[in-house]
Fold this protein.
Amino acid sequence: MAKRIVITIARQYGSGGREIGQRLSELLGIPLYDKELITEAASRGKLDESVLTLTDETSANSLLYTLALGSNAVGAAMRFGYKMPLNDKLFILQSEVIKEYAKAGSCIIIGRCADYVLREDESLFRVFIYGDLPHRQARVAERHPEIKSSAIVDTINKTDKRRASYYNFYTGGKWGRYDNYDIALNSSTLGIEGTARLLFSAIKGITEDKDK
């Protein structure tokens, strides 16, 4: 791709957002970042990755002003005597990683408030993937056979609530609200392949327009 484009994908649980991102990554020939963000954040913060995984996309009951301390927020907060919750450390470290990966070249980033973190990037394209509940139930049941069928809907609702709380807490916005995104697609209508190809066509159109 001649022009850099950074695609962020927010998704409802069970909508196939990550799989769509993976397929889009293949179609566009650009990298996708998801769990890699935790690994890199853990390395930079010298933190236990297994512990960070438990707090990933989870908000903390902390003071939002700590997020305004800048790129050295973690160290600065410690010097000022504020014991920053692990959730906040992860958010700040991941935000630094997201900005660096985006600056390095075209890529796709899954979740983690990336659309907000990169809000000033002119090459940003924000996507929200949602789906009908029956389709999402079927996908979760297939991918997580360890979850009892009677608990699947509850798991979906709790996961979406957690993602919404995380996004709303750290951005001050509203997760899933249409005007936070450039495009919102129902993956139940087109399926994983169809949704990825529709996004591919849209993004190719955008980059071609930029080239003219």
